[in-house]
Amino acid sequence: MTTTHPADVLVSPAWVADRLDRFREPTPDYRLVEVDVNTDFYRERHAPGAVGFDWQADLQSDTWRDIPTPAEFERLMGDNGIANDTTVVVYGDNANWFATHLYWQFSIYGHDDVRVMDGGREYWLEHGFPTTDEVPTFPATEYHVETTDESIRAFRRDVHEALDAETTLIDVRMPEEYRGELIAPPGMDETAQRAGHIPGAINVLWADNVGSDGRFKPLAVLADLYESHGVTPDDAVIAYCRIGERSSITWFVLHELLGYDRVQNYDGSWTEWGNLVRAPVAVGDEE
Known about the structure:
Blueprint: E1 10-11, H1 13-17, H2 20-23, E2 30-36, H3 39-44, E3 50-54, H4 55-58, H5 70-79, E4 87-92, H6 93-108, E5 114-117, H7 120-126, E6 153-154, H8 156-162, E7 168-171, H9 175-179, E8 202-203, H10 219-228, E9 237-240, H11 246-257, E10 263-266, H12 269-273
Parallel strand pairs: 1-5, 2-3, 2-4, 4-5, 6-10, 7-8, 7-9, 9-10
Helix pairs in contact: 6-7, 6-11
């Protein structure tokens, strides 16, 4: 294992700051994308040249409960001046919850060069990097989803099968959610009928992947974190949370930073599982 984060998937804020001129050019070579669940954040200030995506409006399908369809994804990218060969850097609020979820969608739809800006929106603002309230516009491009790879995505049938297999289930939610004391974090509207966790799942909090500044911990520390919970590079892993955004950080760490081959993000997560008829649920600290 290398000792530094792979630059083809994770870049520093300084790396982005050094290339702001490229991100502001009308040509589709580079594009910077901020993803928030609260769009007021983007409107108030953002990195110069960054386009803003609303996680709820832009990164969910208009037609059914799912990620954007290939056609919807193509339209969103093309309307924002992103082409198939664009170097895309994503960042966002909540220590990149929603940015890693977009990265995961890009991976499903076969975009070759997409990276996450370490630390996300909060780090950029708190460390004095340039900001603006100017909303850029870029010439529309043609974007084509040429391949779809859902091997990195888990559906409820995969989770059911994992109950009787050696797959490692990682619940990345707060311990109170895992134990069944909370169905969802306070203030969250979308929830489930039942509280608890999927039987056999271990609880590794998503926030354990990042430091107090929101940047990802060193690779050796991350490897030790998962190995201390019995998760090894040879394991098949399914990560989940409430709606799949927090677990996308864990997927990103395991699959993209640590290089675990068989890692899936279950974006149905607890909102789906906790509403299913006859789906088994465990409560307390028992795995």
